[in-house]
TrEMBL record:
Keywords: 2Fe-2S, Iron, Iron-sulfur, Metal-binding, Oxidoreductase. InterPro entries: Rieske_2Fe-2S (IPR017941), Rieske_2Fe-2S_sf (IPR036922), Ring_hydroxy_dOase_asu_C_dom (IPR015879), Rng_hydr_dOase-A (IPR001663). The lineage of its organism: Bacteria, Pseudomonadati, Pseudomonadota, Alphaproteobacteria, Hyphomicrobiales. Pfam families: Rieske (PF00355), Ring_hydroxyl_A (PF00848). This is (2Fe-2S)-binding protein. SUPFAM superfamilies: Bet v1-like, ISP domain. GO terms for molecular function: 2 iron, 2 sulfur cluster binding; iron ion binding; oxidoreductase activity.
Amino acid sequence: MNVHDPKLAESPADELAANVSVPFETALAMPKSVYTSPNFLQQELEHIFAREWLCAGRADALAEPGAYLTMEIAGEPVIVLRGKDGQLRALSNVCRHRMSTMLQGRGTVRSIVCPYHAWTYNLDGSLRGAPAMVANQSFCRDEIALPEIRCEEWLGWIMVTLNPDAPSPAERLKDVEALVGYLGMENYTETFREEHRWNTNWKVLAENFMESYHLPACHAGTIGGSADDLMKMTLPEGTEAFNYHFILRNDAVPLALAHPDNTTLTGDQRRTTWLLSVYPALFISLTNGYFWYLSLHPDGPDHVKILYGGGMSPDYVGDPEARGHFEAVKALLDDVNVEDRGCTERVYRGLCSQLSEPGPLSHLERPNFEFAQYISRLIEAGRARAG
């Protein structure tokens, strides 16, 4: 029996379960239906995005009391802000009166004011005031507050989840810290943050980050030549929470190497770039001198919302030539993004072709297969919960 034959599967979830049931050495790319099916996307939103930890960006971006950003998790509007007590909090971004959304984008506020009827909330979510409510005998200001959503800082990242029972990021991702803790990622400083929307499925972009197989071709004009021979690349097995690989860089991008004044890093540590894929949707490229990241959220099967940010390590922030170094890196990253957008949008167009079909995976695409296993595992667990 050919387990990859879509005629034998009843749904995209079944197709995916069959797809990941074989050894990696004989694996194919994920079935087309898991990228294009609206029903499968709904399952992803319910069983993955509404239950897992998602990244809202870097904690240093919300340094001052009242600094906030907004996001949406599986259709749920969320505010993340720094309270007057210095704590990071995530709150519902829906007024408790007539259910209008309130804050938009990013900024700094002294309080949260609903633009519809001016109900006003403190930074901890408690209701401060509500005009013209004295005649309503059921109204009690002290009993009304914005629902709080779990929010934790992990190695400098703001992590948010709608799931009250999810293990903490520190527990779930302790192996990440074991791998890259020597770099002190929590001390890197964010210098840019942007939002984009591309015409591709979120998993296509995720998979694109996970493998460096595409570097020589897709990035021939930029970073394609900055890594050693692809056949020498190390692709360790990942965990149930993340996968990773690393690249040993040459001197084509000097900021990726350890700072000349750094005497603590030795050997290959001085030129290693880590590619960390934290499930489901945080992707971090971490070097000795800088980092950049993508935090993804689906916007329909055919579009993905992208939080794109990055910054520098403490060694380079203190370098008087740091700004010039990083401006050059940022310009390079922007060019890389243009190339990635072209590649991933072409993949989505191909997925929608009647004549296309998944092909066999390279040994350089082990992370993609592990990602497919993760998606299938959570979808199957969700289906089991639903009975």
